[in-house]
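S1.2 Input.
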Amino acid sequence: MFAAFDTSNYTTSAATYDGSNIEQHKIMLGVAEGVRGLRQSDAVFQHTVNMPQLLNRMSFDSVCAVGVSDRPRNVEGSYMPCFLVGVNTATAVSKSLGVPLFKTSHQVGHILAALYSAEKLELVNRRFVAFHLSGGTTEALLVTPDSDEIIRAEIIAESLDLKAGQAIDRAGVMMGYKFPCGKKLDELSHNSDRDFKIKPSMKGLDCSLSGVENKAKQMKQSGESDEDISRFVLTYVTNTIDAMLGGIVKEYGDLPVIFSGGVSSNSMLRERIGTKYGAYFAAPEFSLDNAAGVAVFAQMKSK
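S1.3 Output.
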């Protein structure tokens, strides 16, 4: 059995993995009404409060290794204080059990969780493209096998300004909905029959999403419905990801593509990109922040 912890900016997560099945435990961090995010100090405090509750739900019988995410990405200087809570917990558990501790990045955890959910873990042995779409990240990564880190991810396309999750959440909060807003906008968009013709703002393979927020504000001020605004925002994001992936296919060839991150749960994106490119998507519980992929990492490192 492998135990794992992830304390990202919006979810306290723990998981156990027996080599075939994963059991997840999560608590979403609270965000005040009308606020578009959390300060790191608030996230650290909430993780500290939440972690004992998760530990009480878990069994550590037969745990032979512990995994933890200790940084956002596997690049120099990648750091966020919120991950320290997970590191401290994982260190205590591994020391008390006398088992190895394996550290990886939040992003690697997302990718491995998505591969597990899509039943495509064998892709760690070959090149593939991974999209990580969240409030803090909108990136396309060229992923290759790595003897030390299991997988190595190189950014080949990204948003140059606003991230996909930020665009969605800012529009939702502007309309008066509680952060995070992705699920609500998804629901609202299904009640709009508008067909928006949107040309993405691209610079090579990179994109710009700053125009989404400004246009959504203009639509709200003009009295347009929340349903139409939601459909506009999600169409803009979907068209942009479509353009990014289309360019990647031309430049890098027809590689397998996997999507992770909370924005990947969006139904419009999944239907369009899944149908057009044959891309793989994690189930929502493995797309959102989680410790599942970190548990998979611990199992692979133990092998």
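S1.4 Remarks. The first helix runs from residue 40 to 57.
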